[in-house]
Design goal:
Layout (H helix, E strand, L loop, with lengths): L24 H6 L8 H21 L16 E3 L5 E4 L15 E3 L7 H8 L2 E3 L3 E2 L4 E5 L3 E5 L8 E6 L5 E5 L5 E3 L2 E3 L2 E3 L5 E5 L4 E3 L1
Parallel strand pairs: 4-6, 5-7, 6-8, 7-9, 10-14
Antiparallel strand pairs: 1-2, 2-3, 8-13, 9-12, 10-11, 13-14
Amino acid sequence: MAEIVKPNNLSQIWAIAGDKVNPGDAKIQQGWIVEIPPREYENWITNRQDTAIAHFNQMGIAQWDSNTEYIQNKSYVQGSNGSVYRAVVNSKGLDPVTNLGAWRIAFVSTFDPDSLRVFNGYQLISTDFVVGVNSRYYALNSLSMTLPNRATQGDNIILNRAPLTEVTIYTQNSMMFKTSIGFVDTIIADVDDEVNITFDGTYWLVI
């Protein structure tokens, strides 16, 4: 198939200054029948289509809206802060800027401090919790963290902590850790160095 040439001036929107009337949901679902459509209806439909095309052309990725049903791992939107998000659950009405349980930053950019924080920064924790792989955590106080039994080879967790705190690290079902001194079932992080934990395909390696 030959390359489709982009039309000129997609920001010129049909009937932007003309008469427009929303035909209503029932008519939109029915479509045209044997009839002569009122010009206001046709102007409204074409105006909406042109406005959508102009929006996609200008923004690249459509802005989030509260009426669309977004699909887990397939939907990408632009938030009101300019960051691009990927849906991690099916949702409707959950703003990505304020609902990070439903959305994640999609792309890391050196021009976007928020996305860099997600990539390089720590998640602050203060209570016992189960970790998410490929994340960085900073414990504000003494607590315990639990790692999953299985992960993908190369998955990584980085832990740091506040001074004079202690983090006890377990795995689900008491799976063993592999360390430089052999296998152990519990790790206690109480030194100043950052703890790096990597899955080798069989065991969690503690460095």
